[in-house]
Write a structure and sequence with these properties.
The chain has 283 residues and is of the alpha/beta class. The protein has a single domain, classed as 3-Layer(aba) Sandwich (Rossmann fold), CATH 3.40.50.880. It has nine helices and 13 strands. Strands 4-1-5-6-13-12-11-8-9 form a nine-stranded mixed beta sheet, sandwiched between helices. The longest helix is centred in the last third of the chain and has 18 residues. The chain is globular and about 45 Å long.
Amino acid sequence: MDLRHQHLGNTRLSADSDRGTRPLIVVPARFAASTSALRYGADVVATKLAESIFAAGGEPWIIHPVVPEGTDEAGLDELVRQRIQPASGVVLPGGGDLAARWFGASPGASDYDVDELQDAFDFAVARVALASGIPMLAICRGAQVVNVARGGDLVQDLRYSVGADHRHRVHRVRLLEDSAIARLLGADATEISCYHHQGVRRLGDGLQASALAEDGTIESIELAGHEGWFLGVQWHPEDTSDVDPHQATLFRALVDAARDADSRPRAHPSSSSSAASTLRGIT
């Protein structure tokens, strides 16, 4: 069965009851050089991700990543702030590797799909969301974006640092006691679907680990003292959200936080604020 029909069948779609109740959840698109339905390159978002947001009660709002030539960091942040102002929440999705230069490293032999324009745009979305208190769920690459934006760095290939490949894996992670994710899921462990060969090494400013793999890899991050709702996970909750209540809960929590945030005044930072990044230039 086409998953689009399956999800629509399981989701309330009354025009009257749905109108005005679905918070807009921004998802920065990824660039694809080709797709099966188009003759040209395309902006894409994984169908499973859009379905997971929609099933949780949100309205996925896919935005085109743009970094105008000559724009500095503060200018890009302001452009992004204006563009996502109507949104109630953000999902920073998975994707290719970040350019190693953002965290002071040299390119690795296994780096793939590096796109510095995408990096710069995602950094700006992360900074603006955190500084403005917009609820944000950062997934896989997205969690790495947040970590690097706050001054952390990455393991460039887990196969050589911990001796384990985290691609094409479903495995158990331990949720750290008193972490927000442990409280949210009401559990001390969960099964996750992973596809990553890089990971968080040194945590960025204010970030703390909240879930660990058996090999010690950081699989979830939280932001201590942050007034808004934020969760970063190194796995892909969208892969199994239709069959795993824990993963569906992550999306519902984001949408619930987005609805709650709509009822409160939003911060309007004049600069990169506390989410200052290590973005060393965007040209």
